[in-house]
Amino acid sequence: MSAFWLSQMLAGFSFIFDLLAFQFARRRITLAILAVSTSLLAIHFCLLNAPVAASLMALAACRYLTAIMTTARKMKNGFIVATCLCSALSWQQPTDVLPLLGSLLMTSAAFHPAAKSMRRLTLCGSGCWLVNNMVIGSPVAVVMESAFILSTLVSYWRLTRQAG
Fold it and tell me: Where are the bilayer-spanning segments (predicted)?
């Protein structure tokens, strides 16, 4: 099996976890599922020779696991710095700004204690990752990110409906 097809398989498994992630009301469960998903995506991007995206997804898995235990501003700021350093150390081309922006937005989302705000930030970050996936040519990741955006929108709508 080629590296491309293996990467697409891993993105497919990640896709399943992404569809489930925001369907749980409990923030900790959502973050744990996202940690699994981003771990799979780190390997996916590595196989596609996208080092910035791969390293930022590996860092994202750590970020989600940390955010399960704390929303401390200090931790969020530490992950923002780590995201910038990680991106700078593996930077290869101008389009590498997409995973950087996506990761910065997702970091803010992961440490945001309010469910609705977390989902709004996640939608913005997902938009950056969607364009990145188009640029690197990963069809399964494009479908996955699109579905993730839809799933996040549905969960946002459900939260808004419950509150209103």
Answer: 31-62, 135-157
